[in-house]
Amino acid sequence: MNKLKDRLYHKIQEHRVRTTKLLKDHGDKVIDQVTVSQLIGGMRGIKSLVTDISYLDPYEGIRYRGYTLPEVLKKLPKAEGAEMPFVEGLYYLLLTGEIPSLEEVSRVRVMFRNRRVIPRYVWQVIDSFPSESHPMAIFSAAVMSLQRESHFNIKYKRGMSKMDYWDSTFEDATNLLAKMPLIAAYIYNKLYHPEKGHRYPDPSLDFGANFAYMIGKDKPYDDVSRMYFIIHADHESGNVSAHTGHLVASSLSDVYYSTSAMINGLAGPLHGLANQEVLRWLQGLRDQMNGRLPSEEEMKKYVWDTLNSGQVIPGYGHAVLRKTDPRYTVQREFCLKHMPDDELFKYVDALYKVVPDILREQGKAKNPWPNVDAQSGVVQWHYGVTQFDFYTVLFAIGRAFGVLSNIIWDRALGYPLERPKSITTEMLEKMVQSEPSLVNTN
Ligand code: CMX
Considering the entire predicted model, what is its pTM? Predict the structure, then answer.
């Protein structure tokens, strides 16, 4: 067994006892109540999932394994001269809850490097897509096509103990994670730089630096990649992409099916695709201004026009957060250091000054503050990744770390098939009439 897997197994054995005890001693304890508005309103806030990989506090933002993002970025080992840590170290942290040493990260790097081989049929699947296809559709299909490589499926068919599900899931997850940047880079080069062709990975480079190399970007884009993959990795289990991955995997579909489904959920404009929408919306403003920076009044008018036409302001608001997203702040600080004079960055910064007040005045959004997507496209644009429909693919690579770490743990702890109960509107109407306490909105 490799060192990471060894450590993970140790953690799993410790944790199984806790889950078993909770179920055995407290299985009937009530944790939450459900209101009618939650039932009709997308299940907002109902405590109905368990994960130890990350926790999202509405005011503080995300913590991975108890660490805030600034702590994660500070504590995880870095390459010499790098500003951002190795993404491989994040995988170790998400899986085990421990900050790895440089040596432990080196071992994970070798493990990823040895799994970078992509079967030829994956390139053929990508090549068969029309060039106008959205990169998220191509990415999802390419991941899906790898399904025949699943170790979990082979072992399941042969007959495998439930206690061992996590092991082959770990193998599948690690294989897929190692391959995702290569697939994404191939899609990028094919769609946007066909004249340059495919670039093979550089075995000397880490996850983030190799991705930068494969899409032809110089420093500091290696740090941009690392930052991007790390900050997008997880946002606890209820968001659409994480929940989709978990749900699909709960039927014992393998990680290829689950990750492809996760990518499809992320591709919606209310979720990961918002990073592309922000850029599209900002371009609209820039076009109206003929390239000059708008005055505060002009900016306010653009925001109000968007709202009055019934559209949302992309990159603002959140289902859980009630303050500025720390993922926005991490990127903003990177921008202030590396690109303070960037024109788009100035637009985004100017928007930060006007949008929250307008959303408050409109009175609909519960959270008027920016989320991660308000800032991330600007960083990519600055370093020449101007094809904004590609941004969500980058988000998906990062998100796969959290989703796959969760699926490994789901299997380790024997989480069952997910199956909430639904009722009809008529039943609901009858229930609220006969049981007034059910409509208590406290
Ligand atoms: N602009 C305009 N209206 C907004 C808004 C925004 N940025 N954010 C919320 N609202 C509106 C909602 O559309 C809703 O309106 P209705 O009552 O007419 O349906 C109302 O305010 C209440 O919504 P909420 O409870 O504050 O927010 P939700 O939990 O329903 O939705 C989210 C959260 C993110 C979908 C929403 O804020 C939004 O659409 N934001 C813009 C898209 C975006 O940036 N998405 C990315 C989120 C991060 C990510 O997942 O990547």
Answer: 0.96
